[in-house]
Amino acid sequence: MDPKEEVLQLTKTLNEANYRYYVLDDPTMPDFAYDRLLRRLEDLEKEHPELKAPDSPTQRVGGQAISQFEKVEHPVPLESLQDVFSLEELAEFTERVRQTIPTPAYTVEPKVDGLSVALEYLDGVFVRGATRGDGRIGEDVTENLRTVRSIPMKLENAPARLIVRGEVFMPKAVFEQLNEAREAAGEALFANPRNAAAGSLRQLDPKIAAARRLDVLIFNLQLCEGREFTTHSETLDYLRSLKFKVIPYVLCTEQSQIDARVAAINEERGELSYDIDGAVVKLNDLAGRALLGSTAKFPRWAAAYKYPPEIKETVLRQIVVQVGRTGVLTPKAVVDPVRLAGTTVTNATLHNQDFISEKDIRVGDTVRIRKAGEIIPEILGIVPEKRPAGTEPYRLPAVCPVCGAPVERDEDGAALRCTGAECPAQLSRNIEHFVSRDAMDIDGLGGAIVDQLIAAGHIHSPADLYYLSLDQVASLWKKGDKAPKKLLASIEASKENDLSKLIYALGIRQVGEKTGKVLARSFGSLDALMEADEERLTQVPDVGAVTARSIAAWFRSPQSRHMIERLRGAGVNFESRTEITDRRFEGKTFVLTGALTRFTREEATERIENYGGKASGSVSKKTSFVVAGENAGSKLRKANELGIPVLSEEEFLSMLM
Known about the structure:
Blueprint: H1 3-23, H2 31-47, E1 71-73, E2 82-84, H3 87-98, E3 106-112, E4 115-122, E5 125-131, E6 137-139, H4 142-145, E7 161-169, H5 172-184, H6 193-201, H7 206-211, E8 215-224, H8 232-241, E9 250-252, H9 255-268, E10 276-283, H10 286-292, E11 302-306, E12 312-323, E13 328-340, E14 343-349, H11 353-359, E15 366-372, E16 376-382, E17 407-409, E18 416-418, H12 427-434, H13 447-455, H14 470-474, H15 483-494, H16 499-505, H17 513-523, H18 526-531, H19 534-537, H20 545-556, H21 558-570, E19 589-593, H22 601-610, E20 614-616, E21 625-628, H23 634-642, E22 646-647, H24 649-656
Parallel strand pairs: 2-11, 19-20, 19-21, 21-22
Antiparallel strand pairs: 1-6, 3-9, 3-10, 4-5, 4-7, 7-8, 10-11, 12-13, 12-15, 13-14, 13-18, 15-16, 17-18
């Protein structure tokens, strides 16, 4: 490739990767691949300096503050490190140092793969925390950092001003639990702990950050007023004495010691509670650091040894299909045991049918496997020349391996999902939805109680809740507790709910709370809704072809029919009790914005719907009225731009009289 064309392409690719990583917290390129491309660009620019562009990623440290956080200027820049990719390059680095510092000593530390932050203390009190950003300007994330329990809020015997640098990370165990919870909720999984930590630290709501259980390791003293130090190791020991959680280090004076420690950290990485992507070698003498100084981008006294991703070959023996709590079928590869990143791997994710087909993965294949983000084993591809004769292309089953119900492909993705209303794999989540406030509103049935009832074999479907006995429920509480009777009373009371709540509780895909209300008003009874075909369903307002297809398919399922008959036998109401006698708002669409003082948002929506109207969440040309409460924002502005009538809360109230 022509050097000019290659430089342009590399610059474009790396700048896009920088943007995805630093601004969107959505990395699309493995670090090792990024570092290799950056090294290639640096070499080309060195050979052809006239090709170096102003926007070249080699001219910047990387990253920029995002708009929703206040910008912070770092009093001491948070420099990045020069990467080396072999022991030979590492030896070249130490030799350059030795030319200026005759007898150097180095600290060798794990390179934590997280988000770099600066923590500032005044008179021992934590006052501000900021992300690294581009090294000079970062983002103020103080409130989220306060939720990191390993960061001390107050220091004893501290200097007047102290700034330390650390790496915020998500422990591996927490990462795995978070992804399990996101999978159960049907949410996208985080690719690796670093991405999860960065996204958590930039949450606008600190409560979300607190729930993510982030951690930190402090690895540098940036500023310390009134105290002098001679070595880096002395500063780390001092910070540890202040009760910071400090990075572990080993002091080395010989190249062989450095090489051995770098190799040892790589061997230990599987046992560490946090993710790493390399080892950091730093000159220990602080005066020597000042003498060596820094380039425009890196300090000359430190280097980061980057471990290449470890890839091994193994044989795929079996593909096992698991059904998650949301009904998604996930294929898992069972492989011959192989050692990766410090642990023994026996299975790996295969994601979905598209992934398997694209890579033509078959049982019996020799596959290339690695740990994505050093955590999740994944298959990179097959070794075609090692494929045994007689293998067959793999297809996921057309029916659920747990309950036998048909599976369907998501309209908006590659996932296959079980359609069984009584599928045991989905039972816990289905019941939690069924009893939720906007559905059947059964108080006292939390997730722990639901799981105990399932484990005891008392419920196999949401309908079984209505057949529970006092003895079955009472066994979950201490003798004499009133909770069992309260729970049964709540279950009994839910039988009288309006049909709209039951429709929503059934958990039909594409049918939310609002659609449940529309269907209840349109059909009047569950039996009438059950008999409606797709053509009839699409005549209902807000029910499109996809939703109609989902509703009709759900009611055709034998499991759904069985559950409905069980509900009927228990005496659950199947009729709509919301009779609209006053249709003053028929054909009208309202949008509520701002804070209302006379109603909650739910109460105002109910009043609109009771008069035959519709409440929408967004303003469009089809909007009839916008009801603007206090502190109304963008919806009010859009209404004014489109010329849509805007009502005050008092004017809206007068329309209800």
